Each structure stands twice: as C-alpha cells, then as structure tokens.
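For anyone still unconvinced, we reproduce a single protein record, the chain in one-letter code, the fold tokenised, and leave readers to judge:
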Amino acid sequence: MKVEYIYHSGFTVETDHYFLVFDYFKGGLTIKDKPAIVFASHHHGDHFNPIIFDWQKNHPQIHYVLGHDIEVDKQENRFLMAPFQKMTIGDIEIKTFGSTDEGVSFLVQAEGKYIFHAGDLNWWHWFSDSREDQLKAEADFKGEISKIDKVPIDLAFFPVDPRQGDQYYWGGRYFIDQLRPKFFFPCHFGDNYEITRQFAGRIREGITKVMTIEKRNQLFVIKRDS
C-alpha cells in the first residue's frame, strides 16, 4: 500500500486495485486511474470540501461515503452513513463508528487490510472546560473506543492536536493501547509537523509504529508483509 499525507486529516491510501481518499479539504492531490472511494467523516470545513464532487467529471469510477451530517444532493454514487452502519462498495467493506464531535469514524477493509480513520474522534481535553465536562469528555471518548471492532488494524489515522497543550497525546496513546494498530499516522495538526515527532517519542516501541510527518504530499510505502 501507498499512503500519502495531503494536509491536516487528509490522506490517500492506494492499494493494488483501489484508491481511497480520507477527509480532504485542501492540498495537492491526484486521483489515480483506479476505482476511487472518497470518505468525509463530517461537515467541518477542515474535513470536508464540496470540491471533491468535481473529481467525478474526470473519474467516473468514483464513490463518496459521507458522514450523515453532511448535506448534499442525492446521487447514485453518494452514500450517507450514521455511526454503526456497514456497507460494501466493490470489494471494499466499510463500517462506521462514533465520534466525540461530529459525524463518524471509518473502519475500512481493503484487500485484506484494515484501515481506520478517526475523523474527529478524540479525547478532547480543553483547559477552558469545567472539571465535570473534562471527565465527561474522557468517559465519552473511552466509551466510543470500546465500541470499535477488535480487528487487526493495519493503518490508523488519528488526531494529535497541538491545541490541547500537554494533553495532545492522550487520545492517540489510549487508542494505541486499546487497539494496537500496526502503523499510526498522526493527523489534525495543521502545519505543526514537529508534534508528530514528539508524539512518536511518547509511544514505547512495540507493536505499533508511529509515522512522523515532515511535509505535505509525503509518501509512505507500506510493504505487504509489514
């Protein structure tokens, strides 16, 4: 598989037979000449841009899988999904899980590999919140994580948000401890690439390899036997 970091929470995953796009809102992106599925977890402007629908003009083999909170005109290649639903497009199996903000998170099975994109699912710990609200945010997050299928996740894309100060790593570390993905790609960090290295330094070496990101359109090649 090939993984390309686009920007913020936007990534592409290219398999032998499919091209997957997650939470694109800006940046350079070239759709490959393969059946494509474009995912948007929710309506926030840093996760969804209606420009994605222009891509079908040149790529007729494209489908859109969108969080249920996104308001779009109905077309036969557009699918809205609420949490805890499932569907299949070609050989791609898609399940949705919850969020601690808006929309859904995605678990995608593609050619024997499991790919998880969190969208805005995270342990959102804000200093301005009351202690009661902070505890509720923690409980809500851990509750949503407990509902995710315990499958061998190969690629995980998960928020590591510098706006949370010293608590930026709480959600990602908990996700890794609970679900043990093989490869973890930090996201939702804007232009703060340094935080991906800081996060990697906080995760002990083991089952999960944390990928550090240095620039837009950085390409990662994941070997089949990895």
The chain has three helices and 14 strands. Residues 131-146 form the longest helix (16 residues).
